[in-house]
Amino acid sequence: MKVIKKQCNSKMCIICGMQNELGLKAPFYEMEDGSVVSLFKFKKEHQSYPLRTHGGLITAMLDELGLRSLWTIEQNTYGVTMEITTKFRKPVPYNIELKGVGKVISNSTRFLQSYACILDKENNILAEANIKYLKMPTSKIVTENFNDDEHNIFVEDNVKEIK
Questions:
Q1: CATH code matching the domain that covers 3-145, chosen among 3.10.129.10, 3.40.50.10260, 2.40.160.60, 3.40.50.300
Q2: Which H/E stretch holds residue 135?
């Protein structure tokens, strides 16, 4: 499927932060079908049991995919997670490339509902979530001065298509 646009990363986010040593540094792509996709690998430091990624980090990635799906239709709109229901279908390995997909289910002026999943290389669903967000301006989300430079790090990688 064709990539329409690559989204920016941030500096310190555990999922997309480019300067976070333990972070995934995950890229996010807006796709021609309106979804957002990420190709990423969890690290050994993200494990719970040996060879399995911790459920909290799996849920964090699903949450990130869910909100970033909003950015495919509304640029620079932020929100906070109100509710997330995660289903763990199969163990999620680390050190193996995975694919995350996020899609908007419904969107209003104040609320967003999205669906996100993590897939293996055979497109088997390993984990999935339904997520509800309250849309808010950044001035109400962050307590200190919001620096847009923190969230606008663009790293070109020339990815044009994702299967």
A1: 3.10.129.10
A2: strand 125-136
CA–CA gap between residue 86 and residue 130 (Å, rounded): 7
CA 117 to chain centre: 10
The one-letter amino acid code at 153 reads: I
As a whole number of Å, the CA-based R_g of the chain is 15
Rounded to whole angstroms, how far apart are CA atoms 121 and 100? 11
The parts of the chain modelled with pLDDT lower than 50 are none
CB-count exposure of residue 56 (10 Å: 0-12, 13-18, 19+)? exposed
Query: Helix (H, G, I), strand (E, B), or coil: what is residue 162?
Result: coil
The pLDDT of residue 143: 65
SS3 content of the chain, % helix, strand, coil (to 5): 15, 40, 45
pTM for the predicted model, two decimal places: 0.94
